[in-house]
Amino acid sequence: MPDKLTNVTLITRFLLMGFPDDQVLQKLFASFFSLVYLAALMGELLIITLTTIDQHLQTPMYFFLKKLSLIDICYISVTVPKSIINSLTDSHSISFEGCASQVFLVVSFAGTEFALLLVMSYDSYAAICFPLHYETIMNRGAFMQMMTASWFSGFVYESIHVAGTCSVHFYGPNIVHQFFCDIRFLLTLACSGEQILEYVFIIISFCFVFVCFTFMVASYVFIVSTVLRIPSPQGRFKTFSTCMPHLTVVSMFSPVYIAYLGLNSKSPSSLNLFMSVLYSLLLPSLNPVIYSLRNRDMEVALWKFFGENVTPSI
Fold this sequence. Notes:
A three-stranded mixed sheet has the order 2-1-3. The chain is mostly helical. The radius of gyration is 21 Å and the shape is globular. It contains twelve helices and three strands; from the N terminus they run αβααβαααβαααααα.
């Protein structure tokens, strides 16, 4: 018990110093973050609304897309509003409890999103490779179990890292060179001899991402093999275009996250800041655009939502 109390009371607040000290630059960052955050919220909420009220968007694919949008909203809302407030008020402080909460939620939502992207790749695999048995494979019970498994895997993934982080001792300094409580940067502030947890975290994260990414690649190998057996070019294009949004998100998100994990977190750098903004804000914000672009079902639902009866052309 004394050790636990010491761990909590040694450092009571952290300073998030990811942005330059210049007041003008901080206001610019706050304005940029605010615009992207509001645009992301509007896009994600629009997807959630359309996939809820439109009867033609009640398939498993759009069910998972709705959950992905919900996760993205939660994911960016954990860190971005606090960062905006800090920049506008010139206050970089965050409590130990607030920092621990950010770590808990960020890692949990990130792990859940990766697991959900894996489930969505399986949905595409089942729809393209086994179209006649798709409704049997992806029945309501099955995709609810997959959704539950995604959340559970994200929770387990997060629990490992949070338990490891909270078990170390922070004597100082308390400056985190990031705009949110990034677990990699926090672990560099741990007491001497306890930084081994940083490497354990990176290895576990690499393994988790690698396993998800490997299964996704395997799914797409079977999908491409099936698509190539379709005789007409139009049929091949139409079939493969159904999984292009998901493939685009995976192609962007996975390499960026892997590259981010490999960056040096012991010293501040513009590259570290750029990569963290890219994977924690910009990529989740692009999901509504990626999944709505040239998606005829979403276009039709959007036209109906705004009271138009015209069906967009393909």
